[in-house]
Amino acid sequence: MTVLAPSWLEAAHSVRESLKSDAAQRDRSGAAPRAEVELLRDAGLLGIFVPREHGGGGASWSEVAAVIGAVAQADSSVAHVLLYHYFGSLAGTRGENGFVGPERARRIAEGRLFNGTVAQAAYPPLITATQTPQGFRLTGTKPFTSGAALADVLVVWAAFDEGTVLLGNDVAGQLATFHVDAAAPGVSFGGDWDNVGQRLTVSGTTTLTHVEARTGDIIGYGYGVEESSAADHLDVLHMYAGFATIFTGIAVGALEEAADYTRARSRAWVESPHSRATEDPLVRERYGRLWTQVQSAIALTDRANAALDAVREAGDDLSWAHRADAVTLINAARVHASEVALEVSSRLFEVTGARSSAAATGLDRFWRNARTLSLHDPLPHKQVQIGAYVLDGVEPSPGFYS
């Protein structure tokens, strides 16, 4: 298991307990988790993934994942937007051919700013970046922008419009990322996220209407066009290892909360010879099975997070084969943890009893959250990738989803 710096570990556990105390009520209300973001900010957890040379904590990925996992045990929605924050806070710090990355990272770390992302770069239509004498004008709408409405600053994916020239080169049509303040004129949020689970991720629509950006606000560009190495294609590994961590957190949290309910409130079945539900061998057998499944998710997710640490540490020496090994293991952890989270969050009702299905109890949120997050992109496609790699050594093609 990962060992965190004591202050980060203590802060993560403190946040978890605070979120756990009213998680069911907050889930029912479905309100934007602004107080929850303040809890993360006050706990000093927002800047830990920013490299030390840019003013951050310089945490390893496994340390960051341990924080995300602890939060997910209580509230996977908050863990979800925290993952997106960490993912975006690194933008431009790895040597991309952009302008604002290190400055932006320092601002996030020192100002304890919360980052959101307006992405979906794989799906048109994209935000359009039209060049102007002052810089650029960003226009367009994107759905599923988790956490953007909570953010202080945004990473905005865009496509350069016709006629765009940077550093003397025609870059029309190329993908780029921009730094945008979330409160900038022309940025608006639809407030249209109303899904069955992950209800507090505010994953609705973001619209940019003639938002002004400087050329110096470009984080990077040329994605998929400029020559790149394996080390340039780690973003998706962070996201999917983070999802595996969240699924595992859901499974751990669901099992713990179910066990608390069984110990305190479940009644022995009337035909059982036992006076307490916890003494019933059938209840014990099912908890044994669920606990074993949870341990398997923890173990595989820990391996995946360690694999991501290793490819990050390899730097420019990272080979495509090493990356393929890592992304395959991370995808396996994500698929497995998803299945475990769904199984545990569904089966827990069999050992807590009929009364536990009351809306006020809130145990259903674990399944709703796992089910919703598992649909982020089709996991059967990941199984096909894994099978192709196992059978024929087909390395997943680097991109937005592999």
Give structural notes.
With 402 residues, the chain is α+β, with helices and mostly antiparallel strands. It folds into three domains: 6-111, Acyl-CoA dehydrogenase/oxidase, N-terminal domain (Butyryl-Coa Dehydrogenase, subunit A, domain 1), CATH 1.10.540.10; 115-223, Butyryl-CoA Dehydrogenase, subunit A, domain 2 (Beta Barrel), CATH 2.40.110.10; 230-392, Up-down Bundle (Butyryl-CoA Dehydrogenase, subunit A, domain 3). Helices cover 48% and strands 13% of the residues. The protein is built from eleven helices and ten strands. The chain has helices at 6-21, 23-29, 34-42, 61-74, 76-89, 101-111, 235-264, 281-314, 320-352, 364-373, 379-392, and strands at residues 115-118, 127-132, 135-142, 153-160, 165-166, 169-170, 175-181, 187-189, 206-213, 218-223. The strands form two sheets. Strands 1, 2, 3, 4, 7, 8, 9 and 10 form an eight-stranded mixed beta sheet that branches. Helix 1 packs parallel to helix 4, helix 5 runs antiparallel to helix 7 (235-264) and helix 7 (235-264) packs parallel to helix 9. The protein is globular, with a radius of gyration of 22 Å. The two termini are 26 Å apart.
Give the helix/strand layout:
Blueprint: H1 6-21, H2 23-29, H3 34-42, H4 61-74, H5 76-89, H6 101-111, E1 115-118, E2 127-132, E3 135-142, E4 153-160, E5 165-166, E6 169-170, E7 175-181, E8 187-189, E9 206-213, E10 218-223, H7 235-264, H8 281-314, H9 320-352, H10 364-373, H11 379-392
Parallel strand pairs: 1-4, 2-4
Antiparallel strand pairs: 2-3, 3-9, 4-7, 5-6, 7-10, 8-9
Helix pairs in contact: 1-4, 4-5, 4-7, 5-7, 7-8, 7-9, 7-10, 8-9, 9-10, 9-11
